[in-house]
Every structure is written in structure tokens, then in C-alpha cells.
Amino acid sequence: MRYRSMAVLAAVAVTALAGCGAEPEPALRLAAAESDGLGLEQVRVGLAFDQGGRGDKSFNDAAAAGLDRAKKELEVDGVEVTLSEETDEERVTRLRELAEAGRNPVIAVGFLYAKAVQTVAAEFPETTFAIVDDDSFSAPNVVSLVFAEEQGSYLVGATAALKSRSGRIGFIGGVRMPLLQKFEAGFTAGARKARPGVRVSVDYLSTPPDFSGFGVPDKAKEIAERMLADGVDVVYTAAGASGAGSLQAVAARKGTWAVGVDSDQYQTAEAGVRDSILSSMIKRVDNAVFQEIQAFIKGDRAGGVKRFDLKTDGVGYSVSNTKAVSAVQRKVDSIRQQILDGAVTVPTKP
Questions:
Q1: N or C: which end of the chain has fewer CB atoms below 10 A?
Q2: Locate the ABC transporter substrate-binding protein PnrA-like domain: which residues (predicted)?
């Protein structure tokens, strides 16, 4: 890799000078230590998971995939932390521990880390922090990684509407808040674009300050069952680990479909559930995490906002269940192109 080659050359230069009995010049020591962003020291990344941690088959697993890729391709050293309790104090503690251990960059997965990142980043100004799904504040050493979830949701909304036999589809959100309402807005608009007159049922698992909606699969299952009993035959759930309950409800009712979120859940679901997954709204948190680590290695340590959308392959929809999607894929891809061409502007509010 280029950065390793640069580091080796810098090391050779330093060794040659040392062999002549001379102390390397500061500029050469700096080159050896920071060549192309990585230099002779391995980058040590810290990743703090959102509710549920690795294994949620959704949001956290996407972030974990980005770190795994960086460990393999960029040869970084990466550690992960999972919350023992869902409090701001716990989040602060975990981020502070990573920073104190010399982890840099430190990546927080989820908007619930906003207060914690703001606090700890101020304490460690030489450490680069990144937060996924939040741009509510700015700091010189904080990078916000945000997504056009409404665009990906628009595509699965169109897919759901075109595939529905009853003309009734449903959306279940984790928490009724602006971030999740972007999913709802895109899903509903995409459905109505593809099939005017389609009916969309909407429900949420919790409302702030209650953020438990990302970890209550039983409640998601109950709501999905109610929707299905009312005639809904495609259910899109954007609720992290709670989505497992919704998937179970759909799998138990013949002739209905589930739409996954964040990761391609058709690829990770259990055999009894997989065939009921029509598509998933892909949110490339893996790409965002990997690219942020890559940017850090290349020397990009400045704060700011990085947005991932259809044009940057930051969001999309999955077609892994080819048998289910093939009949509608051409029309959905046509709608996707309209977004890319600017002919369609996807709403971000219901």
C-alpha cells in the first residue's frame, strides 16, 4: 500500500542518518512518524456501539463491518466498546476510556452519543472523533457522518407499493423523532410515486425522551401483527434491534413481506425469516466508518459534516431476494435514476 511504502522509505532515511552518527533532523523524524498520515505507528481506532451492540443484524453490524474492513485492508488496530447501560454518563465514560487509551480516531455509532461526543471531544482536542447520524453541533475535531435515509426509504417505499397485493403497506419507526421521520417521509412518498392511492399505516415504538424503541422487538412484533391483521401486507421497520420482532410477525403470516433496514437483512436473517424479506433500505454505515478511518490515515483530521446519499453509494435498496424483487426492479431503478437526475426531490419530513 502507498502509505506503508512511504513509511518504509522514511524509516530507511532515518536509519541511514543514525548509522552516520547523526541525530535525524526534526523534519525527518516527523516524516518518519507521520508519513502519509500513518507512518511507523499503527492507527488505533476506537468504535463505540449504539444500543444493542455488534450482532443486531442492522445498524451496529454495518458499523462493525466498516471497522472489520479497515482492520483487514488498512491494517489498523481496532477495539470496540458496548454500553452496559443506556445513559449519557455511560457514553461519556466509554468515549473517555477510548481517548485516554490513545485511540484515534474514536467513532461513536448513533445520534444518542451527541452529548457525550461534545463533552469528550472538548477534553481531548488532539483526538479526532466521528459520530454517525448526528450533525447537531460542530467542533474542530468532530466529524459528523450523516445519510440521506429518505432517498433509500423512497426506493423501498416504491418497491413495497408495487409488490403489495392489498394496496396497503406499513411503516414502524423506532422513535418518533426527525431522524426516523426521514425514513417515514421517504417511504411514504416513494410508495405514492410508484402507486398513487396506496395506503400507508404508520406507528412508532416510543417517543422522546423515551428512546427504548430501538430495543423492544416484542412491541414491534405486536404492532406488525396488528397492521397485518388490518390488511397491510408489506411492513418496513426502521427500529434497530426491534426490527427482529417485526420480521417474525411477517414470517408467520403467509403472503406478506417485510422490508429490512440499514444492512441487507436478507443476507443475515435466519432461514425461517429470510424468504419473507422483500428488500432492505441499505444505509452504508460500513462505507462511512471505513472512509473516515481512511481519511484519518491520509491526514484528514478536520471536523465537519460528510453526507452519504445515492450519488455516493451511501444509501440504496437491496435486490438480494431476486425472485421477489425482479418483477418490480426495472420500475424502481427508473425512479432511482429520477432522483439521481434531480427530477425527483425526496421529502425529509412526513
A1: N
A2: 48-347
